[in-house]
Amino acid sequence: MKRMALLGVLVATPAAAQGPAPALIGEGQRLAQQWCANCHAVAPGQRPPAGDAAASFPAIAALPSTTEMSLRVFLQTPHAAMPDYRLSRAELDAVVAYILSLRR
Ligand code: HEC
Fold first, then answer.
1. ∠ CA 36-14-43 to the nearest 5 degrees?
2. Taking CA 71 as the corner, what is the angle to CA 65 and CA 76, rounded to the nearest 5 degrees?
3. Structure confidence by residue, pLDDT tens digits, 45-71
4. Residue 93's Cα: distance from chain center in Å?
5. Please, which residues have CB within 8 angstroms of residue 29's CB and are 6 or more apart in sequence?
């Protein structure tokens, strides 16, 4: 049941078609600096924070297994090692757009 609801969210998200707007990516970067930089290096060339349990965002973006959908699913699922952020739809869109923008 939960899974069906999640799929509905994924399908309803328009970002993939034209690629996200630059403003969305900028907002995602701001959110990442604020919430994710304690554990992840969130920008290219940034030194990783203490400990290296969490991959850098550029490294995550470069993984063949990383897709818009995999990021959305990961970030909407509670993880033992990561705080449960309960990102809003808009925040999730922004953070996912930002991480994918690091893929070059
Ligand atoms: C308290 C530390 C911590 C914070 C804060 C944190 N993460 Fe993580 N994250 C981790 C750890 C540790 C892992 C690897 C273990 C795992 O997969 O659960 C991880 C894994 C991930 C992965 C999966 C990487 C892969 O291999 O596919 C993504 C995507 C991710 N984090 C995104 C984020 C985002 C986006 C934020 C901010 C909204 C964030 N994380 C904040 C610790 C953190």
1. 25
2. 140
3. 888 787 667 999 999 999 999 999 999
4. 8
5. 42, 43, 98
Tokens of 85: 């952020």
Letter for the amino acid at 47? R
Ligand 1 atom nearest to 65, measured from its CA: 27
Q: How far apart are CA 30 and CA 63, in angstroms?
A: 22
Mention every residue, 6+ apart, whose C-beta is less than 8 A from residue 103.
Answer: 61, 62, 66
- For the record, the structure tokens of 40 come out as 């992840």
Ligand 1 pocket at CB < 6 A: 32, 35-36, 38-40, 53-55, 60, 71, 74-75, 79, 81-83, 85, 95
Structure tokens at 27: 């907002």
Supply the pLDDT for residue 86: 80
Structure tokens that stand for 50 in this block? 């203490």
